[in-house]
Amino acid sequence: MLKYVLPLVLFIIMAVFLAIGLNLKPSEIPSPLLNKPAPVFAAPKLQAPQEKLSPADLKGQVWLFNVWASWCVSCREEHPVLNQLAQQKAAVIIGLNYKDDPAAAQTWLDTLGNPYTISIMDQDGRVGLDWGVYGVPETFVMDKKGIVRYKHTGPVTVDDVQRIFLPLIAQLQAEAP
Amino acid sequence: MKQLILILTLLLVPVLAQAIDSRQLATPEQQEAYDSLTAELRCLVCQNQTIADSNAELAADLRRQVYEMLEKGQSKEAILQFMTDRYGDFVLYKPPFKAKTGLLWLGPALFLVLGLLAVFWVIKQKKAAQSPEQGQAEKLAKIRRLLDEGDAS
Q1: pLDDT score for B139
Q2: Is A161 inside a domain boundary?
Q3: ipTM of the predicted structure?
Q4: CATH code at A139?
Q5: Which of B30, B36, B46, B82 has the fewest CB atoms within 10 Å around its CB?
Q6: Chain B residues with CB inside 8 Å of A132's CB?
């Protein structure tokens, strides 16, 4: 009896492991920044390069930090979703224009719409490095104290907004500053 | 002959192959640290390459970061800590031993032990099923049968 059951059991164990393996997303690396304060930066604003923005300026607000670039293909896919999210005014959206040409970035915003309250420039990728950015687009959700509460890698979809972002933003808005 | 020379020359090409962008550091120790660090940090875009091997932009940024930190006289440990603070343990090709990575480190040994146990178990089963005397008796019976068959023909 054992002779017949054992291979079956082994097969089932193997199948379960393979199924788990197939459903893992190796491109999604958990961020060590979760529940830690925002990495400090002072980066020039895309639309006013003489002015700088740092996370301290956003204390007391719930904000999204979206890493984007005009050369990034999946950002184009994500852009309408961000535009829609911006219209709902659930949270401030700050853009990190990552390793981009400022003129190309400006054209992108002019033609596709600008969901960002402010975009800052990171031409040499140093801010991105401090934030552990490895693939554009990435989106961080920041609470009123400036703590990283969620990180999304890859384009944000309408479903992500409904399922993750809006509930989380509502929860963070309810927290004391 | 010409062809042979050509083939041999082409075989020499890999010898000339170098790191994607090699940087010169002030001291041999720093150079050694740079080479070993870039060979043990993972490029997160192309996940099966080290930042020394990868041509991705992120890898170039990380190499620059390693270079600048070494130039400032920072230690290897400080640089590895800097990278794990930002990218997590995944950036290390040699992850540290802790609860989360325990299975990763002990898994191979565990499977070896399981395999050895299985081998011993199978041998024991076989031995129990076929004791030496019984085997001897079977062999004798077979010899007799064959001999009888030989007589009959």
Answers
A1: 85
A2: yes
A3: 0.81
A4: 3.40.30.10
A5: B36
A6: 86-88
